[in-house]
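Re: [ENG-882] Designed sequences occasionally contain unexpected residues at chain ends

Forwarding the minimal case from QA. Structure tokens:
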């Protein structure tokens, strides 16, 4: 069983097969969200230079920390057994700050393949899509547009990658201080998919639950309380 908790922004905690991983941890005082309060075996960041995605120090315990850009040329192993494969990407040029290199990254927990979209800001190329096609069960998708991948390009990426489950992230929530659009703009484009809106922040998935051919979009609520 894979247990997925969305803390907010691009930060998740995924636990399966006795291993826990936190993705793209935000900087609490900048995000307006309280820190992650559960320990993890590993932290994976889409880059080490973007403070909205790389505050590994807030995660309790002594986790392995991996900059996904270091896994682009060859896979890296975290938490003793989890292989991380990464695809290099960029935030794009339409930004108020200098665009940063980052990476999408893929790993498996309890037999379920997860891909985190990092902070990509432009359409994905054939070269970027190729290692992901048909190899992703759960896509953690950048659904807030604006400074991340445009929604028409996200639609194409989802269709090309072919996940069974999409969990939107990096969109506007009430206390988030980062710039992002509403998730509704993304959902309105996906009316042919099965959309489930949850009252909580946790989703549990088994391999058997991924057997349906129809794509399911699970919309979670952020677990992190607003920062006072």
């Amino acid at each position: 069983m894979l247990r997925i908790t969305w803390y907010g922004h691009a930060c998740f905690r995924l636990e399966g097969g006795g291993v826990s991983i936190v993705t793209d941890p935000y900087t609490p005082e900048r995000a307006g969200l309280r820190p992650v309060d559960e320990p993890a075996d590993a932290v994976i960041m889409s880059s080490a230079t973007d403070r909205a995605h790389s505050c590994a120090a807030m995660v309790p315990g002594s986790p392995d920390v991996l900059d996904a850009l270091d896994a682009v040329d060859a896979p890296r192993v975290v938490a003793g057994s989890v292989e991380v494969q990464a695809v290099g990407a960029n935030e794009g040029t339409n930004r108020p700050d200098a665009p940063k290199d980052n990476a999408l990254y893929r790993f498996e927990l309890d037999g379920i393949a997860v891909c985190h979209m990092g902070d990509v800001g432009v359409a994905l190329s054939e070269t970027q899509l190729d290692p992901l096609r048909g190899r992703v069960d759960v896509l953690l998708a950048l659904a807030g547009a604006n400074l991340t991948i445009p929604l028409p390009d996200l639609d194409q990426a989802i269709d090309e990658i072919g996940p069974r489950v999409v969990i939107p992230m990096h969109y506007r929530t009430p206390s988030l201080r980062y710039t992002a659009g509403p998730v509704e703009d993304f959902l309105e484009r996906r009316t042919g998919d099965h959309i489930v809106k949850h009252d909580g922040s946790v989703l549990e998935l088994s391999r058997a639950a991924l057997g349906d051919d129809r794509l399911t979009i699970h919309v979670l609520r952020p677990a992190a309380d607003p920062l006072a």
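QA comment: On inspection the terminal residues look reasonable. DSSP finds four helices and 14 strands in the chain. Proposing we downgrade this to a documentation issue.
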